[in-house]
Design goal:
globular; 45% helix; four-stranded antiparallel sheet; single chain; alpha+beta
Length: 159
Amino acid sequence: MFKTVEQLYKIVKDNWSDRFLLLKVAILLILIRVGLQFIQFQTLRNLLAKIAQPKQNKQVSIYKIIWAITIVSPYIPGVKCLARAIAAQVILSKQNYPNQLRIGISKDNQGQFIAHAWVESRGKTVIGGIGNMTKYYNVLSLPEWEYYKYSKFILLRNK
């Protein structure tokens, strides 16, 4: 990955749209990180639902969205898979891409419970896909923002 902000700057120095996207992603990740730390998850989802309202403008590709989140997240302390997945869901929803945030649990080699969050779009994992995803038991599935106001969350028994 990139070791310094200067290396990151070299990549996007001539591309203003990439710079703007990276800035928006950085701000969103910071807001999500702080929100996860200090407010209830449901309250954070309700606040982010306002940001995630779909827009009619030109779409940013899914690949560009995931690229930006992947590039920016190492520079923000404490950003883990849940914050990245929430950011992806917000931006994907805003760009009118179908998506679903999933949270799964498993056990590590020492028998300790571990959790992981990822986002799927059109049946494919777009962010958070790590190794053998089948080891995670899907316990929570949060629909895209547009539908969230009409339903709470859906507990899934098994994938």
